[in-house]
Specification:
48% helix, 42 residues, rod-shaped, mainly alpha
């Protein structure tokens, strides 16, 4: 269970890959658009 282990979180971070142990964060386009619009109003 270290950097060489593909299935562990540390191994995923070291290799720079994503998967079940280290899921990729989903970008919410609707949420980003509303944030940009609200910051312009200020």
């Amino acid at each position: 269970m270290g950097k060489g282990d593909i299935r562990s979180k540390r191994g995923k971070i070291w290799r720079g890959t994503k998967g079940n142990t280290r899921p990729k964060k989903k970008k919410n386009k609707d949420n980003e658009a509303s944030k940009a619009a609200s910051s312009k109003k200020k």
